[in-house]
Amino acid sequence: MSTTKNYPKSFSHIGLTVPDIKEALKFYSEVMGWYVIMEPSKVKKEKETAIGKMCIDVFGNDWTEFEIAHLATSDGIGIELFSFPNGIKEAPEFSPFNTGLFHFCLQDPNIEELIDKIVAYGGKQRMPIRAYYPNDKPFKMCYVEDPFGIVFEIYTHSYELTYSSGAYSK
C-alpha cells in the first residue's frame, strides 16, 4: 500500500510552433493581452551551451537554429513560441480524432469582443458561439483559429464552474 498522496499538478506552459515569430508575438500580445517576458531570440545547435544541449536532446540533430519567444497569461501560464526556418509553414489538417494535442482553451467573459479581435487580426471563428447550458447557466464557448491555423477554444467562465453541478443552478 502506498502512502504517497496524489495531488493535482499545475499547468506551466504550452509550446506553439508558428511560421513567423514576430507576427505570432504581435497577435498573442495584442489580441490576447499576454505579457512578453522574452523577446524573440535565436537558439543555435551547439553542444557548448545548456540551451543548445537541451534542444539537441529534444529535437535531435536535424536542425541548425530556430527562434524562440516567451509570453505569460494573466494567471502565470507560459506560452512558448517556436519558429523553425525549415519547417512546414502551414498548420496540419484539423484532426481531433487522432491521438495528440487537440486544442487549448482560454477564458474571457467577453467572448464576442475577443472573437471579433481574433478575426480582425487574421484568425477565424470556426463555429457559432454556443451556450453550454442555455436555460441554466450563462456559460458560452467557441472554437477559433489564430492567423497561423492553430485551433483553440474560448470559454466565458472557468473550467470548474462550467462543469460543476451546483454553479448557477436554479
Automatic annotation (TrEMBL):
The lineage of its organism: Bacteria, Pseudomonadati, Bacteroidota, Flavobacteriia, Flavobacteriales. SUPFAM superfamilies: Glyoxalase/Bleomycin resistance protein/Dihydroxybiphenyl dioxygenase. Residues 10-157 form the VOC domain. Keywords: Metal-binding. One of its GO terms (biological process) is L-methylmalonyl-CoA metabolic process. It comes from the Bacteria. One of its GO terms (molecular function) is metal ion binding. This is Glyoxalase.
